[in-house]
């Protein structure tokens, strides 16, 4: 006889796409007529729950006297193949404290609907809520003959256990899979030479840029949970690979002890999705000479930027 007497769950039994809503109060579920917005398009989502334990030791004993739970830290990572820039800009743009909506100054809650059993033959509709969420890191990657990918990590105040739908919600508006339409971004959308370094265009591969918000997690005595998530000092880094031979301008910049910061742009799709990084300094240059050639010669540069944003031009 099988040990499993109930139907198993996998990612194909989702009820709706990953969706979100801006919070009114940090970490408090909105129950009255919430209207959720879909995240287009989420490839993978991994919630994380990390317990914080305290060892209690007693002098003269090799073993611990006891282990006590001190709290729980939550988070999640998401791999997104975007078809617009609305959601990922929450993680890439500066927080707007006067008008927080759509920026990292606001906090968000997410809803995942799926089917699961609880020891019975049938499966019920369950909701998983992620409450009190703010973006920590956002990495956009573009490679040849591939989809554009945005990998995001989020800080989270709490992920309660799954609850049967409607999960305490009254008259919610939850997007369907059919509500997401349109092509996702891919590398060919940017056209030839999508990278501009100091106003000169270059052929490029494996472009990547990361916004790190250095999210500050504040916990105060008594709650056992994070009580506040705050954007800290942002750091912007990236890398790209370009073939040897167009010019020596980047090699010249790498050699200079007084390298000047320049503007770097990457066009994901003209007029729709353009990344602009300011005051960019090249940091490292890997340019291998192979004993048994398997690749054409290329420079792989890493860079740092003082600021970067997503726009339409």
Verbal overview:
The termini are far apart. The chain is 4% helix and 45% strand. The strands form two sheets. The protein has a 16-stranded antiparallel beta sheet that branches. A two-stranded antiparallel ribbon has the order 12-13. A hairpin with a 3-residue loop joins strand 15 (262-269) and strand 16. It has two helices and 18 strands. With 313 residues, the chain is mostly beta strands. The protein has one domain (11-311). The chain has helices at residues 89-92, 249-255, and strands at residues 19-22, 37-38, 42-56, 66-80, 108-116, 124-142, 149-158, 163-164, 195-197, 200-202, 205-212, 216-218, 228-230, 235-243, 262-269, 273-286, 298-305, 307-311.
Query: What are the low-pLDDT stretches, counting only 5+ consecutive residues below 50?
Result: none
Q: Whole-Å distance between the termini?
A: 63 Å
Derived from helix and strand composition plus strand pairing, the structural class reads mainly beta
Let me know the largest β-sheet. Answer: 16 strands, antiparallel
Fraction of residues in β-strands: 35-45%
- The helix/strand order is EEEEHEEEEEEEEEEHEEEE
What portion of residues is helical?
under 10%
What is the strand tally? 18
Number of DSSP helices?
A: 2
């Amino acid at each position: 006889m099988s040990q499993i007497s109930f139907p198993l769950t996998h990612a194909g039994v989702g009820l709706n796409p990953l969706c979100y809503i801006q919070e009114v109060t940090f970490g408090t579920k909105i129950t009255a007529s919430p209207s959720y917005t879909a995240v287009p398009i989420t490839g993978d989502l991994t919630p994380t729950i990390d317990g914080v334990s305290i060892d209690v030791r007693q002098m003269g004993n090799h073993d611990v006297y006891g282990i006590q739970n001190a709290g729980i830290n939550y988070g999640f990572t998401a791999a997104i193949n975007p078809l617009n820039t609305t959601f990922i800009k929450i993680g890439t743009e500066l927080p707007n404290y006067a008008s927080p909506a759509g920026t990292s100054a606001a906090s968000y809650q997410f809803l995942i609907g799926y089917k699961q059993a609880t020891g019975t033959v049938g499966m019920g509709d369950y909701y998983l809520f992620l409450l009190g969420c703010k973006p920590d890191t956002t990495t956009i990657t573009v490679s040849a003959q591939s989809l554009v990918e945005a990998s995001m990590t989020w800080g989270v105040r709490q992920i309660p256990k799954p609850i049967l739908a409607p999960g305490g919600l009254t008259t919610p508006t939850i997007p369907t899979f059919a509500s997401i339409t349109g092509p996702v971004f891919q590398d060919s959308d940017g056209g030839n030479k999508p990278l501009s370094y100091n106003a000169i265009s270059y052929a490029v591969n494996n472009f990547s840029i990361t916004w790190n918000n250095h999210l500050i997690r504040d916990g105060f005595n008594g709650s056992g949970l994070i009580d506040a998530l705050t954007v800290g000092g942002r750091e912007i880094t990236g890398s790209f690979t370009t073939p040897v031979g167009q010019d020596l301008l980047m090699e010249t910049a790498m050699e200079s002890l007084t390298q000047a910061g320049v503007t770097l742009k990457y066009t994901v799709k003209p007029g729709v999705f353009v990344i602009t990084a300011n005051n960019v300094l090249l940091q490292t240059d890997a340019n291998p000479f192979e004993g048994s050639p398997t690749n054409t010669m290329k420079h792989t540069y890493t860079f740092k930027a003082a600021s970067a944003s997503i726009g339409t031009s």
